[in-house]
Amino acid sequence: MENFSSKLLQSAVDEFSKLPGIGKKTALRLVLHLLKQQEQDVETFAGAMTDLRNNILYCSKCHNISDSEVCHICSSANRDKTTVCVVEDLRDIIAIENTGQYRGVYHVLGGVISPMNGIGPDDLHLDALIQRVTTDNIEEIILALSTTMEGDTTNFYIYRKLQDHKVKLSTIARGIAIGDELEYADEITLGRSIINRTPYQVSTSSTKK
After folding, report:
1. Total-model pTM
2. What is the DSSP letter of 59?
């Protein structure tokens, strides 16, 4: 345990170190950086975090993080509402939007099915996706989940739920390496994977489960 000269410093470092990927040394650097800033700048930083936590909304259509009840993508007249890209979270939307290759809308699941982590279908926005297909004029569902075992399991679950609906089911091309997270893919590779998406096909191993 670090021997800090101030309990206030210790407390601040402890809080920063709770963030993903932030160790004690990095947390200390961040705290010391803030200490060197003007008081107003630190208050603005703290206020932005408090504002975010207290006032953030989730789109009633796609469950994306939003400043209003319906996010700017779902409300845009320039987006193709008949094509829905299914992603895990906001980071994947940002990655896909940065490619400039996709003009449809999204559906954020909030994760993937992962029994080992205690995450089942009821913990995700899967029922809302089925409801959208049932009530909206959706022609294609693009499965853009990470190419992991959990992502493939979730893809198969969605396939089983939608196989009796008249909707095209496709998946991003495997330009994304097996096991990769979408947010870490370069924009060119991800963009091509969206453009060159292929019909979703259930593997033999999946159908036997």
Report:
1. 0.78
2. -
